[in-house]
Amino acid sequence: MKVHLPLGFAILTTSALLQPLSAAPLDETTQHLARDIFQQLIEINTTDSVGSTTVAAEAMAKRLLDAGFPAEDVKVVGPNSRKGNLVAKFRGIGSRKPILIIGHLDVVEARRADWTTDPFQFVEKEGYFYGRGTQDMKVNDAVLVTNFIRLRRENYRPDRDIILALTADEEGGKSNGVDWLLKNDRNLIEAEFVLNADAGGVTTVKGKPVNVDVEANEKLYADYQLSVTNPGGHSSLPVPDNAIYHVADALGRLERTAFPMELNAVTRVYFTRRAALETGQTASDMKAILLTPPDDSAVARLSADARYNSLIRTTCVATMMDAGHAPNALPQLAQANVNCRILPGHSAEEIRLELVRIFADPKILVRYVDDARNVYDHTPDKNAFPPILPPDEVLKPLARIADEMWNGVPVIPEMETGASDSIYTVAAGLPSYGVSGIAIDQDDVRAHGKDERVRVNSFYDGVEFYYRYLKALTTAR
What we know:
Layout: H1 28-42, H2 53-66, E1 74-77, E2 85-90, E3 99-104, E4 123-125, E5 128-130, H3 138-153, E6 162-167, H4 177-184, E7 193-196, E8 201-205, E9 208-218, E10 220-229, E11 233-234, H5 243-255, H6 265-275, H7 280-288, H8 296-303, H9 306-312, E12 315-323, E13 329-330, E14 333-342, H10 348-359, E15 365-369, E16 375-376, H11 392-406, E17 411-416, H12 422-427, E18 432-434, E19 439-441, E20 453-455, H13 456-474
Parallel strand pairs: 3-6, 3-7, 7-18, 8-19, 9-17
Antiparallel strand pairs: 1-2, 2-6, 4-5, 5-20, 8-9, 10-14, 10-15, 11-13, 12-14, 15-16
Helix pairs in contact: 1-3, 3-13, 6-7, 7-8, 11-13
């Protein structure tokens, strides 16, 4: 049975009809291609424990080769058989230096028992695509591969090379792909600047666009191990000096301790522009924290919202615990992992020492843990990169396309509260900006969580966004 729809309505799927009209309906061929690539990526397990980014990289490489890309422009490289990285080049006429786009193929772990759907099956229901990576970040991997093929089919000739690197171990592991490429094959990814599709995006409320974020800097990621050792003994002879109690008390003190409120050049711009989009108390509070000194009551109210609290403070939270060796014995070792997201201007070692001060317990050893889970008594030099406001070359076409697709919503530079591979490219001297066209409700961020999902229309809009944006950045002037 055919359904007759008003002119301009995107014919997607039955579930998609439950959603608002897409900002930029795709042609049917591109839509099918994008969906197929997205499904293929979601259903390839790329977790660090049992998955393989090489399988995903080779699958995307085959897509590009089948679309006519020369073999010399599509490479899968990496340190071992499981941690492959795809590097693909869309050749231009060379009148300007290349652009590099980075994204990661790996995803965080997901247990089937925790989800209402299988996290490694691509499920469409009620206007959403579900699966591990639908937000972070196979969604944009699919967007970018789709647009490489789309532009190739059009015989598009950019004025500069566009390099796409889809890599391993951004979420953890011993083989971070961007770091590996910079150290081992930098010539493959040398560029004037970097677009990081793992950051930025369209902020929505109940599906309505509010603003487009562009990442201008990010917090520094750091893990710390808390350890307490004890001789142990029989559980029938309990002693107050229990290793588990020491760790639990320390974590309780951490929970009750807030790091100081701070703003930087990027977060000041963010709250200034976001205040204009808010109403009532929230708008007033955003303006009040910009004062010198900031209004303490306004800071307290905004801090009650995890989104805003993470923008104005370093945050540290317990994420894992391990203790004891038998149910009828006192623990000889208790450990916990504390994950911190550190504001620019502060080092990981500074925060380690601050944790020692907060815990105030000489029995607790606080050590730094790197991405490969190596443990150090002191933190190697590791600082967040400074705020870098994007130049007009990045911002002006972004603002124009946001205006076209989302009815004039403003573009706001932001500080990413998570962490991304921009930390490696910036350290290597490559200016990096987080840009994405994927819209996610500000109260439905499920990255790393259960039942991760993205709106069907949001995905297709993201495809159209990067198509327009890449053309705007690479069309001969």
